[in-house]
Amino acid sequence: MAMALRLQRLMVLVLASMVVGSVSLSHHPDEISRLPGQPHVSFRQFSGYVTVDHKKHTSLFYYLVEAETDPASKPLVLWLNGGPGCSSLGVGAFSENGPFRPNGKNLVRNGYSWNREANMLYLETPVGVGFSYSIDNSSYLAVDDEATARSNVVFLQRWFNKFPQYRQRDLFITGESYAGHYIPQLAKLMLQMNRKHRIFHLKGIAMGNPVLEFATDLNSRAEYFWSHGLISDSTYKLFTSACNYSRYVSEYYRDSVSNLCADVMNQVTTETSRFVDKYDVTLDVCIPSILSQSKVISPKGLSEAIDVCVEDETVNYLNRKDVLAALHARLVGVRRWEVCSNILDYEVLNIEKPTISIVGLLVKAGIRVLVYSGDQDSVVPLMGSRSLVHRLARQLGMNTTVPYRAWFAGKQVGGWNQVYGEMLSFATIRGASHEAPFSQPERSLMLFKSFLEGKHLPEVF
């Protein structure tokens, strides 16, 4: 009953927002004339705020990059980073699959930007992340998955008032890491609202190295460490019997870490070494802290500080006054833009609530689902994601339509994939880290293009 009332109130908010007058795109106040240091491009960019709670003056920040060619015919793709509490602007747009990457005082083109295939919308969510803010500081307290989904769906509908030409456009939601919680819950809410009024033209979701089921995802870390030679046989046995990783995380967030789990995790940490990046176990150079977005998955109690030997150019760039002015961005209640929020108090135990069952509901509703894994990531390893997708397919009675096989990007193997029915698939990206588009941009773009087009990944080069 309570859920029905909340949904009804949300529908009233959304429908009321639909009558608000929209602004002509040709004279849009949110258009970015030019980002400082930006090379010449033919596509348009927009950024600004959408108020999702007028009472608390809560506004979410977005960055829209139109498709490079023929944007009117291309779908709209929403991108969400995880954390919870990390920036889709700084991580997704400026480090992974956006059109530019900071390089000193300038921006350089990303030749594998996802706006080659779609209109890309990056959202800094929940409130307190990046440039998103609230005048009421209580908005940053006890934020949970349900509240995040509600804010995101209100954002989308009110954003359509700014950009009405996208209202009937095919919509896809993509993201990574803790977005394995954000995306299914947002999509479920969108489908519920569509039952009364066709508001969203959601076609599919794609999630990279996502947290979908707490125990399966986190406990696969032990097998990954052992199979890649990061821990010994004896430590692997302890890590799978005496204290597995999900138990440790549960104890940590309840301030009740047992001596047994503390001893096991100290042994694991010693053997894996603080000089190996857990987000990309084959990388032999240190990486920017901007890539460390799994705040909940890797609690502070066990994760080593990342040695930042490369200047974090995104942080420097996004804190420049001329860049803030160009983005129409404001710093409210904070001194600096940060990759991951220091003011957001998220209900971290939400991580224990599985979202894989919601993914099943989406598949049954006709929403295409892709789960993909960078195969060098030990934070949310491919073993857990692959087993969850396979188990879901069995539960739904879906037959394999494309058997597990290699796929190609150019003349090299891009990864492996398996397809169930026409609506559910799993793929790996060979050589990719937790942030796949950052570490394997060409292969990630091939995967993204095939997903949007509803085509099978190429099996020959």
In CATH, the topology is named Rossmann fold
Contiguous helical run count:
14
Largest sheet data? 11 strands, mixed
Mean pLDDT, to the nearest integer, reads 90
Number of domains as seen in the coordinates: 1
Q: Beta-strand level of the residues, as a percent range?
A: 15-25%
Q: Into which percent range does the helicity of residues fall?
A: 25-40%
How far is the first residue's CA from the last residue's CA? 54 Å
SS class: alpha/beta
Task: Give the overall form.
Answer: globular
Count the beta strands.
Answer: 13
Please, what is the CATH homologous superfamily? Alpha/Beta hydrolase fold, catalytic domain
In terms of per-residue confidence, which ranges show pLDDT below 50 for 5 or more consecutive residues?
15-24, 302-311
CATH architecture annotation name: 3-Layer(aba) Sandwich
What letter string, H or E per element, gives the SSE order? HEEEHEEEEHEHEHHHHHHHEHEEEHH
Summarize the structure.
The chain is α/β, with parallel strands linked by helices.
Description:
The protein has 461 residues and is α/β, with parallel strands linked by helices. The longest helix has 18 residues, at 145-162. The strands form two sheets. Strands 1, 2, 3, 6, 7, 8, 9, 10, 11, 12 and 13 form an eleven-stranded mixed β-sheet that branches. The chain has helices at residues 2-17, 88-97, 145-162, 179-194, 214-227, 233-241, 245-253, 259-272, 313-318, 321-327, 356-364, 382-395, 436-439, 441-453, and strands spanning 45-53, 58-65, 76-80, 100-103, 106-109, 119-124, 133-134, 171-176, 202-208, 368-374, 400-409, 412-420, 424-429. It has a single domain, classed as Alpha/Beta hydrolase fold, catalytic domain (Rossmann fold), CATH 3.40.50.
